[in-house]
Amino acid sequence: MAAERNTSEVIIYTDGACSGNPGPGGWAAVLKFNGKNKQLSGGAAKTTNNRMEMTAAIEALRALTRSCRVTLYTDSKYVKNGIENWIHNWKTNGWKTTAKKPVLNEDLWRELDELAGKHEISWRWVKGHTGDTYNELVDTLAVSELDKYKSNKSGA
């Protein structure tokens, strides 16, 4: 019981964005802990939206320095369904889908699974672009990151 009382509670919002699929992309996360917010973001020159959504969750969980009780909000049903439902069968089936094809983004799924295993996580889906303050913030941050890659591509 003492370990439970010492478990930190963190709220995380994540988002990914991509211009083209594949194309330049960005990801962002906001971690809310003890009345403070920490923003994380990054991007890639050529990626997919799903990879950016997953990277946001991975980087947010990687930023946690100890085991936490986490509520993680994502507007990606791919991330939420993948980590809560599909991953169990993928692992059992040697990272193959029910159609016996390789799981897309297996590298990120493995990393997300490993990081998620270190925490007690409640995965929550939030509908994007509906006025949720933190979902809007991570969307803005992710788009800002992808814009950096679009700018670099054009030489600006």
Short description:
The protein is of the alpha/beta class and 156 residues long.
List its salient traits.
single chain; 156 residues; alpha/beta; Nucleotidyltransferase, domain 5; 5-stranded mixed β-sheet; 5 strands; 43% helix; 30% strand; globular
SSE pattern, N- to C-terminal: HEEEHEHHEH
Number of domains: 1
Query: Which structural class do you get from the secondary structure elements?
Result: alpha/beta
Classify the beta-strand content into a percent band. Answer: 25-35%
The total beta strand count reads 5
Cα gyration radius (Å): 16 Å
Distance between the termini: 56 Å
Largest sheet: 5 strands, mixed
Query: Averaging pLDDT over every residue, what do you get?
Result: 93
Low-pLDDT stretches? 1-5
CATH class reads Alpha Beta
Helix content: 40-55%
In the CATH hierarchy, the architecture is 2-Layer Sandwich
What would you give as the CATH superfamily? Ribonuclease H-like superfamily/Ribonuclease H
Shape: globular
Instruction: Give the strand line-up of the largest sheet.
Output: 3-2-1-4-5
Notes on the structure:
With 156 residues, the protein is of the alpha/beta class. It has a single domain (2-154), classed as Nucleotidyltransferase, domain 5, CATH 3.30.420. 43% of the residues lie in helices and 30% in strands. It contains five helices and five strands; from the N terminus they run αβββαβααβα. The protein has helices at residues 2-5, 49-62, 77-92, 106-116, 133-154, and strands at residues 8-18, 23-33, 36-47, 68-74, 120-125. A five-stranded mixed sheet has the order 3-2-1-4-5. A hairpin with a 2-residue loop joins strand 2 (23-33) and strand 3. The longest helix has 22 residues, at 133-154. The chain starts with a helix and ends with a helix.
